């Protein structure tokens, strides 16, 4: 059984959302069946359960699971899953993924034809705001009820509060990356009592940075927290990501800071998982490489989103679901020729020595003539619900899975160090950068150095392609392409970009998603992103 931070779904989440109203009344209800925050937050175990709801918000969709009592309305509960929609925004919009389905506007992601009324973009936006609301309320209750705990309880609560601040910063980072100028609320704002003001992307950058720097000291030391919970290394990794994209978010370069924080993570003792595919199996919680994960458990975290979606949707055609530890495939996601070609050798064929080239080609065409046909485009075999030995998952189930999503891992940190060094970080070291990149490639080539590169081959173009080879389908690609100036415009095209089979240039305003029409109409303080 996984040693992990269990996600507990309770009516407590509802109690948390109602907390702002309860504070205003300053009374106890007569009905003894009603649970108030005075009774809920009586010891640290209650705070831990409430904290679990925030963690759970990335993996689950409601109080019941997998469906029946959704956190947000207006969209199918499985579609509303945070990780599922984040992955769609980051991957379906790029060369790394297409989807065959005709659900609502799902194909508009890859075509770059989305609008402010898009139901999936709206779901992502409201997931972000819901997560921030949960974190705000938790932090507020930490401040209010800490004095009622013992000295030991207060010390423990410091860690919980720091984790909630990290999770809020992580969610706002998704917001700044996807939407730019976001509605802004903190624990000081009462729920439902005002229209949130819109914060500029630059000011939101400063806020995220400040939160991470302040909460870092109260987070558990790197590699010392329960699996799946944030520690100092998670904060350092997020800071590195924030600084790496500072030119996009704020118009300034912060590459020296990228080196500072990636080096902190590297020095913390993480090591590369020896076998690349083992990072994406049902026992990946054992990996020495994963820094921060979104946890899934076939028994306790049941959802039609998250890793259930990533595994099932990728299976179709001649693929055998049993090989992936599930009962069936959904025939949805594949990849494009432009991505496959990043694994080509000098003979213009897939380099089969690279263990990251996890393509299913039997019965699949390389060219995508019909985006709605699963067999058009190579399938991806990256995620599985079997263990690294091929044994059944700990909670083997035909639908629900045990595989965790690796949000942050060491190979990404190595590549960020190398990129920041190439971009001119004064404290970067090119020898180290090459060493880190070749460590990744040595792992990819089964411990052999045949795939290693020379210092002259270590360029920014190489880094972008290597990030694709190493990190595909892990939710990085859109952000990477934008940072390199290749997401929109015509410098880099891929099949069906711009709704053209061969691909075509798309307008630059698509580097940001629109503020959903529903929130724009509801909140007079919001201004739509340019171009929409």
Question: What can you see in these coordinates?
Answer:
- With about 525 residues, the chain is mainly alpha-helical.
- It has one domain (about 10-295, about 405-520): Serine Threonine Protein Phosphatase 5, Tetratricopeptide repeat.
- Helices cover about 40% and strands about 5% of the residues.
- The protein contains 19 helices and eight strands.
- The chain has helices spanning about 10-15, 20-25, 35-40, 45-60, 80-90, 110, 120-145, 150-180, 200-215, 230-245, 245-250, 255-265, 305-310, 335-340, 410-420, 430-445, 460-470, 475-485, 515-520, and strands at about 100, 185, 195-200, 290-295, 335, 360, 380, 405-410.
- The strands form four sheets. The chain has a two-stranded antiparallel ribbon with strand order 1-5. The chain has a two-stranded antiparallel ribbon with strand order 2-3. A two-stranded antiparallel ribbon has the order 4-8.
- The longest helix has 28 residues, at about 150-180.
- The chain is globular and about 70 Å long.
- Residues about 1-35 have low confidence and may be disordered.
What would CATH call the class? Mainly Alpha
Shape: globular
CATH 2nd-level architecture: Alpha Horseshoe
Structural class: mainly alpha
Helical segment count:
19
> How do the strands of the widest beta sheet line up side by side?
1-5
Global Rg: 23 Å
Give the % helix.
Answer: 40-55%
Tally of individual domains: 1
